[in-house]
Amino acid sequence: MMSLSTRSATESDVPFIHGLLNGYAEDGKLLSRPETEITKRLDAFLVATENDEVIGCASLETFTSELGEVRSLAVMPAFQGKGHGRNLVNVIEQMGQERGLARIIALTYVPGFFRKLGYQIVPMESLPEKVFGVCVTCPKFNNCDEIAMQKRLSPTEAPA
Known about the structure:
The protein is α+β, with helices and mostly antiparallel strands. It contains five helices and seven strands; from the N terminus they run βααβββαβαβαβ. It has a seven-stranded mixed sheet, sandwiched between helices. A hairpin with a 2-residue loop joins strand 2 and strand 3. It is globular.
């Protein structure tokens, strides 16, 4: 039987995360992230596993007390279509709710995936925290072809 799970990334996961992200970056599907940046932001990363093998990753970037982003979402091609990406996004959203975030955004080339998870397309201009905080340093800043999407999170209920 298949065992699917998600856990916090550890230092031993950094080479896998770096290799997976750079593989997709070479195909133009993601932006590359240097190993040093992954290591520095390791507390924001999750990994997906199938039968204890690491097969995917994602991270939660927090911009303000209300806004976060799903970043670096990737699953090895042989393991796609099995719910790993959806599980990673669900855990990112739960983390966002626990931090009190009101919205989660994603910049993507795969809007259909995020639409199925309740995200809606929004104008890039509606995300100044992202554009002026991160995008300005991107090599694609002047011709960004990613689609901005957003999901409003439900506030978490305080325990009774």
